[in-house]
Amino acid sequence: MNTQPQARPISEGAVVDRRIEKTVPLITPLALHEELPLTQQLAETVVAGRQAVTDVLNGDDDRLLVVVGPCSVHDAKAALEYAERLAPIAERLSDGLLVVMRVYFEKPRSTLGWKGLINDPGLDGSGDVNTGLRTARALLLEVLAKGLPVGCEFLDPITPQYIADTVGWGAIGARTVESQVHRQLSSGLSMPIGMKNRPDGSIATAVDAIKAAAVPHVFTGIDHDGAPAILHTRGNPDCHLVLRGSDAGPNYDADSIAGATELLRKGGLAERVVVDASHGNSRKDHHRQPVVAAEIGGQVADGNQAIVGVMLESFLVEGRQDLDPTKPLVYGQSITDACMSWETTETVLEGLRDAAIKRRTGA
């Protein structure tokens, strides 16, 4: 007689989605694009913005690229007001600056925290991604209507199918620059991509990312209809280094920039860097951003050709605030990293414009 216990059939529920609480249908990229279309006029703004950024990166345009705006958008109304203020300043300073508005919707997190407007537009943990995608795309279209190119950081590899057609400049963050997924993604994106050095200060990792993204890749993703697809990329020649400082301190000084360009040279890459005046370079103190920007501007004015751009975190109201359900939010103030005020931003932009003009004229 067989005394061995008889195996019981394993149900699908025992091995599938054991930790998934629920699934919600996701709108397809095609449906969102049809709902919120990129018009011919706005498409021309995108294409012109991408070409202008590429020209600055390649030295065909001697202006200074400035990516400026909130650390992360949480209020579309306040972000649009910021765009309305920025557009005329960008036009006035366009003889020296190419201004791209920073419109970030995804926040990478070391541990926990608000993940950005696309993931949590209600600021309440409800995770209404469909609303987040609609809100993000609608805002991008409105910013483009002001004549401003937009810059976004790409975090989720599916998100670009929904918004990338509106973006003039993209970024891969310090926490994801080592990710093969994001290097592959960058190789297929249609705009220039800035690769940030790692939080520990490693520039070599970002240089490796630039090299990896410049060549073709094959990887899985979704197509415009939202169907699973195998994507074959051509490689992106417009990826470049962003120096953002580190946990140990800044890397915007002349020696650090010379060291970074040496690494680029050894890697067979163009010697061009964008310098982030926030994060580690300001030691996360928004009051230091103008000081850092002025010092970067000084190097530009002295003729440093390797510095092709600057990043700034700026909003309507300076500083930052915590998400507190018991208190109303201050309109136009960041809920992530602390930002410069609008008034300070104007002064900083004017200083950077003067530096770019001085580099051009040598006077």
Automatic annotation (TrEMBL):
Name of a matching Pfam family: DAHP_synth_1
Enzyme Commission code: 2.5.1.54
Enzyme class: transferase
Alphabetical UniProt keywords: Amino-acid biosynthesis, Aromatic amino acid biosynthesis, Transferase
UniProt catalytic activity: D-erythrose 4-phosphate + phosphoenolpyruvate + H2O = 7-phospho-2-dehydro-3-deoxy-D-arabino-heptonate + phosphate
InterPro entries: Aldolase_TIM, DAHP1/KDSA, DAHP_synth_1
Superkingdom, natural source: Bacteria
Coiled coil: none
Record bears the keyword Amino-acid biosynthesis: yes
Domain DAHP synthetase I/KDSA intervals: 52-349
Record pathway: Metabolic intermediate biosynthesis; chorismate biosynthesis; chorismate from D-erythrose 4-phosphate and phosphoenolpyruvate: step 1/7
Function: Stereospecific condensation of phosphoenolpyruvate (PEP) and D-erythrose-4-phosphate (E4P) giving rise to 3-deoxy-D-arabino-heptulosonate-7-phosphate (DAHP).
Family: Belongs to the class-I DAHP synthase family.
Name recorded for this polypeptide: Phospho-2-dehydro-3-deoxyheptonate aldolase
Organism: Kribbella koreensis
